[in-house]
């Protein structure tokens, strides 16, 4: 008899919870062709491309776009423009594969290095104020790991930069350019989970950090651009917002994460402090004496 009462009380408690959750929280529904989670450099460019293609696009971000972690990048963007010395995207490809100890996805590296010059010119057309040579070309710096002629031709100058604030300039440029498209921004909305229908993703569910309301974003296409998870470690150069939200959402949905062991601990980071000096120091000759 006691067991029956316990079972009944558990059922009543579950029913109470179910009713209280569904009636106590108003769920606001949204429907889009595409939803992008994250508004850093990758998220903004993805949203622009989707909106330009005619898709009704939403951007869900827990930060205002210009506060995303892309803003912290200092050094620059590698592209084989050849403004300072003869260069070739195939040399860039070689350096990148070699720099990854041959563990990188070579198809992805091939595409990235081949398309990098076009991407830099696109950013220039958006208004990104690259540093310039005296002749007006985009200035390119020498960074570590860059070479000419498949490692046989000495140091290459391949990094396009905006002084030492490249990420800051990139993010503000992309955000300004994105405003010409009909993207709808949901700022300070924390993505909680993917909406799954069997094995198919049909959107995301997020919480409005201002009032705690729950929002359900239904979409035919879902793009996760939530950044890394460096803050799971004691010492790193990632912002405190880099907590792997998207990675966790994917895991909870039963989907696969790939190459999770590859976490960047920046070679010019300062241990313990977690702050970063410019990557340009890797390409500079530094003399010290005691």
From TrEMBL:
Cite the GO molecular-function annotations of the record: electron transfer activity; flavin adenine dinucleotide binding; succinate dehydrogenase (quinone) activity
UniProt superkingdom: Eukaryota
Q: Which residues form the FAD-dependent oxidoreductase 2 FAD-binding domain?
A: 33-283
Reply yes or no: does the keyword Oxidoreductase apply.
yes
**Residue intervals passing through the bilayer:** none
UniProt record, GO biological process: mitochondrial electron transport, succinate to ubiquinone
Keyword match Oxidoreductase? yes
**SUPFAM superfamilies from the xrefs?**
FAD/NAD(P)-binding domain (SSF51905)
| Species assigned in the record | Meloidogyne incognita (Southern root-knot nematode worm)
Q: Which Gene Ontology cellular component terms are annotated?
A: mitochondrion
Q: Which InterPro entries match?
A: FAD-dep_OxRdtase_2_FAD-bd, FAD/NAD-bd_sf, FRD_SDH_FAD_BS, SdhA/FrdA/AprA
UniProt keyword annotations, A-Z: Flavoprotein, Oxidoreductase
Supply the name of the protein: FAD-dependent oxidoreductase 2 FAD binding domain-containing protein
